[in-house]
Amino acid sequence: MPTPPQSLRTLLRETSTFVRIAELVPGRGPLVETEAAKVAAMANELTTSGIAHVLSITDNAGGAPKIYPESLGMLLGDRKEQAIIHLSCKDLNRAGLESRAWSLATAGFQSLLCLSGDYPVDGYRGYALPAFDVDSVGLIQMLREMNQGMPVPNMKGELVPLPKTDFYLGCAVSPFKKDERELMPQYFKLQRKIAVGADYVITQLGYDSRKFDELLKYMQIKGLDVPVMANIYLLSRPVSRFFNKGNVAGVFCSDALTAECEKQAASPDKGKQFFQEFAAKQIAVLKGLGYRGAYLAGPRNAQQFAAIFDLADSYGPDDWKEFAKEIQYPQPGEFYYFEQDPETKLGSSQVNREYEASLRPEGRGRARSKAPFVYKLSRFVHSRLFDPESRGFSMMRDFYLRIDSSPGAKHFFHVLEQAGKVPMYGCKDCGDCSLPDVAYLCPMSQCAKNQRNGPCGGSAQGKCEFFKEKDCIWARAYDRLKGYSEEEKVFGGPAVYRNGALRGESPWANNFLGRDHFGYKPAPKQ
Q: What's the mean pLDDT when you consider all of the chain?
């Protein structure tokens, strides 16, 4: 008998079901009739048989152009509510994302996974310029406002709420980062995503049970009470090699695990049994740890999905504990938020002692002493001139009010401003400056994705996903902020949005006159 369709929201909120999610990856090229029939048959077999409760459909995965996920989702017919549609920020600006969200709501899709997205790769006649007008935090906040009835001005200029959407919003997080300066911003940004409206969490790929465990423990002590599911990928020799070379942003496959995959692939069945068992054991670990579901990617047909999920269900109730000890493939010298429990080999309740020591006054002092001079100078100037409570701010506001009606004066002081900001910060003259949001590092010139609300998940060993030789600016920001006890505080508050209308204008004038994002006032609730 076919399984009645249930949405991800229903499964997570109204049942205790360990949710099985199967990933579908759209291809590049038209969805011809024969291919559409094949995909539809597989999707319906996965859902009607109960092999998977939910299907997750990717949005230009890997940065290459592909069919939009909703095109596959429409093939599900009356089972569309069982689809998670990925929505990423790399190809569309906020207007395009809003338009697409209205289309998704109209088509009946509810579960969305909100992502910044992979940086575009080589496509038609070279690389496409990405949008990254907003990031995942900004996207989640916008969609939450759509759920509440987004207010827009009518012909009279009065704010009128639009019809409410009913999206169930998910976000991603990667606990599989090597260094403290890279991992902690991931956790802080997760808190921000949940604060602005994320309803559920799906992890990125990783092969370390201790980090899977740590994420849940961290969320518990921080009071982040949303369901979490984890990403599992069916390995093979070619896939492990591909991951090991860093070809997938933010995914790490250790030399030891890659060597094991090589060894198993030399067996008579080419490692088929090992790879399926490895995925099933990871799923069993997730169940034992308390995850609400597993997001399985890599199988090519419904039978492979079924074999792995069924094998995971066949294990004994305590088998996962041994599997958890077995599946630990960290990066050399990896940072953990919690000390290791010597018995379980997972995290204990004790926070990392070295990390705790670094938060004490002497540890903060050492971090502060390493902060570059330009950062210390920037903090000093900001506190005297740009802090709205300072006397200097009032003086500067009065000055810019006086010159605001004089094009010549405005141009002169704008040029003077840029003469200092360009060499010091690499300023791109966006007109809506986020230097104070990112520890005086310019996200427009130093971040490939222009992230203003925290790091993406694509960095590797602290290096930028695209500018591979450069440190991620959020790792650098963390180093600067930690000495001043501000590394977590900077992630508080609503999402930061850049106002594109201010491009080429004086950021100082816009700040002092309340035109930039610091002066933005949200529309009153209706």
A: 94
